[in-house]
Amino acid sequence: MDLSCNLLLFFSLLFIIINPSIVQSSFRPKALLLPVSKDPSSQQYLAQINQRTPLVPVKLTVDLGGQYLWVDCERGYVSSSYKPVPCKSVQCSLAKSKSCITECFSSPRPGCNNNTCALLPDNTVTHTGTSGEVGQDVVSIQSTDGSNPGRVVSVPNLIFTCGATFLLEGLASGVKGMVGLGRTRISLPSQFSAAFSFDRKFAICLSSSTNAKGVVIFGDGPYVLLPNIDVSKSLIYTPLILNPVSTASASFEGDPSSEYFIGVKSIKINGKAVPLNTSLLTINNIEGFGGTKISTVDPYTVMETTIYSAVVNAFIRELAEVPRVAPVAPFGACFNSTNIGSTRVGQPCLKLILSCKAVPFSGGFLVQTQWFKLKVMFCVWDSWMEVQIPGLQ
Ligand SMILES: *[C@@H]1O[C@H](CO)[C@@H](O)[C@H](O)[C@H]1NC(C)=O
Ligand SMILES: *[C@@H]1O[C@H](CO)[C@@H](O)[C@H](O)[C@H]1NC(C)=O
Ligand SMILES: *[C@@H]1O[C@H](CO)[C@@H](O)[C@H](O)[C@H]1NC(C)=O
């Protein structure tokens, strides 16, 4: 693997998963490989999985904090191995469903069966949710030893949710659903680690360029993403924080969020702390607002309004010598990039100050490589300003 991307590694030891419905194949891979590309028109990260019998490639939008895999079953889902998950089954409780579709008023098909376990699949790009049948089908994926791609392996009964065709609105062209890597027992990392008995860890390496590929590696390192360089050897850590309140468009009461939050303590621009209401940086455990999440579905860094204003004002102060140009929505302040290099200040450096105390077994860690220190860059492209965390958007 030769990739120029930013690596995030997630450990999650929250759950011990024993999923009796997943049959293990005789060859046991150490890790699995899912290539990720960035779609130029939507800026969404896309991956392709092979699902169903006969196997077909299914293009999906990658959602790091998404709850599970959901695909459109209304249009074009043909498979002889599809199985609806019955209400009150082991798989249904693993999925933490609190809903049962007793009767579907149509002829039976994937997504429409009687007495089926139901979940609330979520388009996290448009924030639209619906109700959908929980099903199982075969998924095949390439294994890896951490350096090179290995043989293709299958998970015969991967649990997913049937979305609807309208739920695809707002996703990249040709996409048939979303693949969630979040903190649930039926997200892809959880099911893959249960199926092949490897550590419940995964790494995601995303490219900010639409020309370079990224990858998700399910399982433990080494992660040889550059020739002869195991990036798992040069990591710095910050704890992942659980938001006890769901952040999905639709959810069952009492569900925690499946998204990954980190503890940003302050924001500095050129070494100076940006004045902001720091209570907004902490998750409100009753309403679930506040805190800092890592997302792959927003194309740029999104900040709460007052924090954003404070950051933009600090940025304007640092770039006082640089001519402003008309703002390009949704950005509030834009500068002429041809003038930045010639100034004394150059491009301001924005840093998120993180909690760096690694607390073992507290529900997971976000790990970063040295070249990615959660230093947020203000990238100034042709006369407009973009705020982005490299590879994190
Ligand atoms: C569900 O059950 C009803 C009543 O038994 C039946 O009429 C209907 O066809 C069934 N629907 C499906 C999708 O199997
Ligand atoms: C800071 O934010 C919290 C949460 O939104 C709010 O309750 C509080 O009033 C704010 N404090 C100030 C000084 O604006
Ligand atoms: C940016 O600055 C250059 C050099 O001063 C100038 O030629 C150009 O017109 C400016 N662009 C905008 C959008 O103002």
Which secondary-structure class do the elements indicate? mainly beta
Helix content: under 10%
CATH topology of the largest domain: Cathepsin D, subunit A, domain 1
Number of domains: 2
- Structure ligands: 2-acetamido-2-deoxy-beta-D-glucopyranose
Q: So, CATH architecture of the largest domain? A: Beta Barrel
Average pLDDT works out at 81
Counted by DSSP, the helix tally is 4
How would a crystallographer describe the biggest sheet? Answer: 17 strands, mixed
Low-confidence stretches: 12-25, 357-364, 368-393
Q: Report the span from N to C terminus.
A: 23 Å
Which radius of gyration do the C-alpha atoms yield?
22 Å
**What's the shape?**
globular
How many distinct beta strands? 28
CATH structural class of the largest domain? Mainly Beta
Which range does the strand content fall in?
A: 35-45%
Write out the CATH superfamily name of the largest domain. Acid Proteases
Write the layout of secondary structure elements.
Elements: E1 6-11, E2 31-38, E3 45-51, E4 56-63, E5 69-72, E6 83-84, H1 90-94, E7 99-101, E8 116-119, E9 122-123, E10 128-129, E11 132-144, E12 149-163, E13 177-180, H2 188-196, E14 201-206, E15 214-219, E16 224-226, E17 229-230, E18 235-241, E19 261-262, E20 264-269, E21 272-273, E22 292-293, H3 305-318, E23 324-325, E24 334-335, H4 337-340, E25 349-354, E26 365-369, E27 375-381, E28 384-388
Parallel strand pairs: 4-13, 5-12
Antiparallel strand pairs: 1-14, 1-26, 2-3, 2-11, 2-15, 3-4, 3-11, 5-13, 6-11, 7-8, 8-11, 9-10, 11-12, 14-15, 16-17, 18-19, 18-26, 19-22, 20-21, 20-25, 23-24, 25-27, 27-28
